[in-house]
């Protein structure tokens, strides 16, 4: 077992805006090798993302085998294909939210099940984005009422930017019923009220018998705040919005570089 200062045993990282920048959809070789090296030395690495599980497995490739995945903003946790936690939202409220998104011009819907994204795209561009660029497993449907499995997360995508357009509309209308979180330029996510990355990490730490001082976490957006705030070593990315950066004293320009410096890895 690697001897490390402060005895960090688990590293948790957000993906978009943290491990991936500028719309990139693949991880660089140094990031993958850093994760593999830490795993070889006995550390656990977890991805904490709004993304779905199949997408994350593909993204991390050879490193995914021994990783923990906190998916769907904390609504789903898996390890070695085994579900450790699954949190669903109220179905009736979810269907009402979906109808509201459908009726809003310029807004697209993504409904997350455990292993697929359900889409009824308004445009071919959105379908192409989710299937071929983001590379989600997708299921096209005619009516969201026909979906049999639990609703894990509902997201609204607005290409023009959710914060400056429809964000206030949806949050003011639905924040009494769901956890509402901006997770990227075009994305606003809705989950059950108690679902977030912080609560998912708290569940995981209890299961692993780890303390918050044994965890290093990285994030850049509002859906990372609970996670970053609960651990002793919460790093916010330099590219994060100023109001997010100002909350934390630990900063990172690159997750891989920060980890290599911290754990004295020569890659």
TrEMBL record:
Matches recorded under Pfam families: Hydrolase_3
Give a GO cellular-component term. cytosol
Checking InterPro entries in the record gives: Cof, HAD-like_sf, HAD-SF_hydro_IIB, HAD_sf
Q: From the UniProt record, which GO molecular function terms apply?
A: magnesium ion binding; phosphatase activity
Superkingdom of the source species: Bacteria
**Protein name from the UniProt record:** Haloacid dehalogenase
Origin species: Anaerocolumna cellulosilytica
């Amino acid at each position: 077992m690697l001897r490390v200062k402060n005895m960090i045993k688990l590293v948790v990282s957000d993906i978009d805006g943290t491990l991936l920048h500028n719309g990139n959809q693949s991880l660089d070789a140094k990031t993958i090798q850093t994760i593999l090296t830490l795993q070889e030395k006995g550390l656990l690495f977890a991805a904490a993302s709004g993304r779905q599980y199949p997408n994350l497995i593909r993204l991390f490739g050879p490193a995914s085998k021994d990783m923990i995945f906190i998916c769907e903003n904390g609504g789903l946790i898996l390890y070695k294909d085994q579900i450790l936690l699954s949190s669903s939202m109220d179905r009736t409220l979810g269907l009402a939210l979906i109808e509201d998104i459908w009726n809003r011009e310029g807004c697209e819907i993504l409904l997350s099940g455990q292993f697929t994204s359900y889409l009824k795209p308004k445009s071919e561009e959105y379908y192409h984005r989710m299937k071929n660029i983001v590379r989600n497993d997708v299921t096209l449907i005619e009516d969201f009422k026909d979906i049999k499995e639990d609703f894990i997360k509902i997201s609204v995508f607005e290409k023009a930017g959710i914060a400056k357009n429809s964000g206030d509309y949806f949050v003011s209308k639905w924040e009494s019923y769901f956890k509402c979180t901006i997770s990227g330029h075009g994305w606003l996510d809705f989950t059950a009220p108690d679902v977030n990355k912080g609560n998912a990490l708290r569940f995981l730490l209890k299961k692993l018998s780890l303390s918050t001082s044994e965890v290093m976490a990285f994030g850049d957006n509002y859906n990372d705040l609970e996670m970053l705030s609960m651990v002793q070593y919460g790093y916010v990315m330099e590219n994060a919005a100023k109001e997010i950066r100002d909350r934390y004293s630990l900063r990172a320009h690159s997750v891989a570089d920060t980890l290599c410096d911290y754990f004295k890895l020569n890659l």
